[in-house]
């Protein structure tokens, strides 16, 4: 019996000439600065030079999609990494922010055909946020940068539409 092995697309190695943007919310800056540090450290570790990493700071997570869309549409970036934190409060406000931002960023990614890794922490407390920003649960900013590098490389090896 003949065994057919499917073709698997594997990501290309990171290109040190690719430019990356990071949009980061200033609200909950104690946490978002740690996410930003994780993302930048990961990109630098992959050989992306500091001069090819641009950061846009927005007031809060709600503003992530507009800035990400502007950067994605510019055609200058291989990926736009989005970082923010929404901590649950006494109302359902957090649910509306999280859903709206997530859906908008997903749509922008598809429309622009560009990776927009979502590093939007949706947590119940500051302690949970800090655990995900370099604490015992890892650094979601770093994980988003890894996802960006992977997707940029993968898109380079896949056939174009």
UniProtKB/TrEMBL annotation:
GO CC annotation: cytosol; riboflavin synthase complex
Reaction equation(s) it catalyzes: (2S)-2-hydroxy-3-oxobutyl phosphate + 5-amino-6-(D-ribitylamino)uracil = 6,7-dimethyl-8-(1-D-ribityl)lumazine + phosphate + 2 H2O + H(+)
CDD domains hit by this protein: Lumazine_synthase-I
Pathway per the UniProt entry: Cofactor biosynthesis; riboflavin biosynthesis; riboflavin from 2-hydroxy-3-oxobutyl phosphate and 5-amino-6-(D-ribitylamino)uracil: step 1/2
Top-level taxon: Bacteria
SUPFAM superfamilies for the chain: Lumazine synthase
Active site: residue positions: 93 (proton donor)
Pfam families in UniProt: DMRL_synthase (PF00885)
Record EC number: 2.5.1.78
Protein name: 6,7-dimethyl-8-ribityllumazine synthase
Coiled-coil intervals: none
Record's function text: Catalyzes the formation of 6,7-dimethyl-8-ribityllumazine by condensation of 5-amino-6-(D-ribitylamino)uracil with 3,4-dihydroxy-2-butanone 4-phosphate. This is the penultimate step in the biosynthesis of riboflavin.
């Amino acid at each position: 019996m003949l065994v057919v092995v499917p073709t698997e697309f594997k990501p290309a190695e990171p290109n040190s000439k690719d430019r990356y943007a990071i949009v980061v919310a200033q609200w909950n800056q104690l946490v978002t600065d740690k996410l930003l540090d994780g993302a930048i450290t990961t990109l630098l570790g992959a050989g992306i030079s500091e001069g090819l990493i641009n950061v846009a700071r927005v007031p809060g997570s709600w503003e992530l999609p507009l800035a990400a869309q502007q950067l994605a549409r510019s055609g200058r970036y291989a990926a736009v990494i989005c970082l923010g934190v929404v901590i649950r409060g006494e109302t359902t406000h957090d649910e509306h922010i999280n859903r709206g931002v997530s859906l908008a960023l997903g749509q922008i990614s598809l429309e622009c055909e560009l990776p927009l890794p979502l590093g939007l922490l949706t947590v119940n407390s500051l302690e949970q946020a800090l655990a995900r920003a370099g604490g015992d649960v890892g650094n979601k900013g770093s994980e988003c940068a890894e996802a960006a590098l992977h997707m940029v490389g993968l898109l380079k090896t896949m056939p174009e539409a």
